[in-house]
Amino acid sequence: MINFGKKVLILTLAFLFLVGGMSLAQDLPREETLVVSGAMWGPPSTWNILIPNPTPGTGGLVYETMFSYNPLENEYEPWLAESGEWVSDNEYVLNVREGINWTDGEEFNAEDVVFTYQLAKDNEIPYSPIWDWMESVEAEDNFTVRFTFSEPHYAEWDAELYQRYIIPEHIWSEIPSDELITRTMNDPVGTGPYTHRQAAQDRMVWERNDDWWGNDVFGQPKPKYLVDLVNQSNNVVMGMLMKGELDLSNNFLPGIQRIKDQFGLVTWYEEEPYMLSWNTAVMYMNTLREPMGDTQFRRAMAFMVNQDTIVDRVYGGLVQSANPTGLFGEGWQAYLDEEIVEESGFEYNPTKAKALLNDAGYVDANDDGWREMPNGDPLELEIMVPSGWTDWMESVRVIASNAEEIGVNIAPSFPDSSLFDNKRFNSDFDLMIGNFQTTLSSTPFDYWFGVANRSIHGETISNGNWGAYDNPELFEKIDEFNMTNDEARKQELASDIQETLLQDMPSVPLWHNGLWAQATTEYWTNWPDEDNPYGVPVSWGNAYQLGMIDTLIGIEPVE
Amino acid sequence: MGKYLRKKIIVYIITFILAVTINFFIPRLMPGDPIQSLLSRFSGMEGGREILENQLTLLFNLDQPLWQQYANFWKSVFTLDFGISIIQFPTPVLDIIKRAIVYDLSVLLPAIILSWIVGNKLGAFSGTDKRVDKSTMPFFYFLASSPYFWMAGLVAFFFGVVIGWFPISGAYGSTATPGLNWSFIKDFLHHWFLPFFTMFLVQLGGWAIGMRNMIMYEKSSNYSKYMETLGSSKKLIRKYGFRNGVLPQVTGLALRLGRIVGGAITVQVVFNYPGLGRMLLDAVQNQDYFLMQGIFLTIVTMVLIANFTVDIIYMFIDPRVRLSFTEEV
């Protein structure tokens, strides 16, 4: 019997290695390898840059953008482009850098930029809507591109410059239209500092492109290999950090502040809040339902939430409570109007919240401890966040108990994430928390468009403004902010927009989620931080050009 | 014998048809929409979402009426073309299953078989020896009743963190590259050990207890008593008892082997080990109809095959069954 068992075991293993033995390859030298995690929620499966979430790193490590954006300084850095400027109200001329090659040896030039946009005109791909306001893209010569706009959206164009990855014409032009988004593009050909080396169930391995054009311009990235691990449970990530097996973790790890010093982990700030801010968690209220359709009620909700409790108790100080306007980061704060925040902003103040509710007629008429609607109907609301997002679940419990203090019955509800999305798209909720379209960017237009836009009249809402807040006058101003280049006018508009949002309170900014980043110094040192802000340690998808490439160049191997 | 097999095969075919049908409808009863949950991860696309939504709906054939989708699904059962996965868009479901199942088999097959062999032997010993029984049974009961994730957590903490002998996460080290070379094999085995060992431990107790009870029962039967009075050795009595007692254990083993794919979710979560169990969990959470269907179908097929195999094996190892069949014909 035992012999039989052994045979089975040996046969199993032999079978296994036959299946697993795809190539004869060496171990990666650990001291030349950077191991990161926090970006991938499933096995790497596609490197197709036309869909919005290919394997993280495809954008940034392989495909590159015309500019990169430094969120710490609010500055654009010429990347594939050498320079670019508006030569008239509706024409933008881009000078492409010379001497760049695709990793298969072909030359990169203006035609590739033109192709990237032309592809969106000739086919239906996610960024095709840009052609609603763009008229033409032409290559004037090998290294000059002229964009002509029918209706220039300056703010969106600024974002476009550092978010659109340029693809090689000689490869993509051969892909049939109906396969544009389904091809996996297994071995993507880009211009960037890394290339695809190996993909497995639990990891993506990138290998440095030693011929990268940027070596002479910015310097060479230090790690020869970059291993990106699929996200694992928090205890596993913590364990790997403690053992120094992981160099950079972009996972949200509650309690990391308590073990940070003991294990020598590097975070952006030495003290609270430890992390840079990355997005704004916003409480949306469904204005299609009563009483959320009532401005007074919505304002009361803003004064009711004790953000400090959420910051301290739920997050242990890892996040910052939100600015009442929801704005954070250099690019957005350039338009922050402190005076308006002073005048119309909100803060935790239950007395004020109660007064607002009393004035608007939401009183406890039947003495059951809960307030009723002005007409006497019961007032029972639900606030939803996706099940399993433990920090958010805890936060809405805080909100529910805050509401109880002022006599409003709000019950937490935790649907599965797909049901949550379904309810969100179909306006089937009372209150919810979301951080969609509130992520760090170069222009506050993105935030405002995310909380207030006019695409709310369709069958479903799928483009921000989940509460279906309708204010055409405000939408007009947000659009104008997008479409003007006059800085004084933009400031004026920005102040108006902030004023309206604070008065009407369609959504309540609660806290700024962090750019979760904890690094170890076992193999790599000189991580960027508050005192040495040369880059941003972020390995999340589509964020490499926001300072991660600089980080890869700036870190130093431990001798 | 022919009649017996024919009957069995008809029952299995009906079971299979029912299972496939349920397998098709259950995911579709979930509230929500898979395309939307795929799209919800694409944030910050002004206007691009509708474009993608239309294309994906067509791609996944979700615009077709339900009966058409059901017919397509039956076709896919025979062609093994389960479509493409939503969470691992656009990888074909079959590829995902093929890639992941290797890990399920590599941990569970040895763990189940070894724990069965060792558990049965140990159980037989405790069943015939009072002293051994008293000292080992509490331990077996402890093993059999401790929840897997709890025990795996303890083992991982002790071996992985306190002593630090074994890695606690992944199928191989973060700098290893799969290949047929000694350093990778070593690395693989190093990572494989704890998931295997914990799976082995939790199952050991159950088999041992089962066998011990069977042996006790056999010991009190007439033939054992008769042998005892004849002065047979303990070992001989145990040997005969074992042959009878092992029959139900074989059924248990076959069922366990059939459920091999679904049974490893916890080990894969605790040790962050790849495999179909975790894929299934992800698929359910993300409403990946196609991946769910593919994995469920794999499980159903394996359970049916295992059951069928038991039915056949029984004819060989149990003379009573064999006789009753041959008499029928």
UniProtKB/TrEMBL annotation, chain A:
Q: Which Pfam families match?
A: SBP_bac_5
Q: Name one GO biological process term.
A: peptide transport
> What GO molecular function terms would the record report?
peptide transmembrane transporter activity
Domain Solute-binding protein family span(s) in chain numbering: 75-448
GO cellular component terms, alphabetically, are:
ATP-binding cassette (ABC) transporter complex; periplasmic space
Domain of life assignment: Bacteria
Q: Which SUPFAM superfamilies match?
A: Periplasmic binding protein-like II
Q: Which InterPro entries match?
A: Peptide/Ni-bd, SBP_5, SBP_5_dom
- The portions of this protein that span the membrane are none
Q: Which PANTHER family match?
A: ABC-TYPE DIPEPTIDE_OLIGOPEPTIDE TRANSPORT SYSTEM, PERIPLASMIC COMPONENT (PTHR30290:SF82), PERIPLASMIC BINDING COMPONENT OF ABC TRANSPORTER (PTHR30290)
Q: What is this protein called?
A: Peptide/nickel transport system substrate-binding protein
TrEMBL record, chain B:
Topology relative to the membrane, per the entry?
A: Multi-pass membrane protein
**In which broad location class does this protein mainly occur, judging by the first location in its UniProt entry?**
membrane
Specify whether Transmembrane helix is a keyword of the entry: yes
Question: Which InterPro entries does this chain map to?
Answer: MetI-like, MetI-like_sf
| One GO process term, biological-process aspect | transmembrane transport
Compartmental location? Cell membrane; Membrane
Q: Which SUPFAM superfamilies match?
A: MetI-like
Recite the UniProt keywords alphabetically: Membrane, Transmembrane, Transmembrane helix, Transport
The family this protein is said to belong to: Belongs to the binding-protein-dependent transport system permease family.
The molecule here is called Peptide/nickel transport system permease protein
- What is the source species? Halanaerobium saccharolyticum
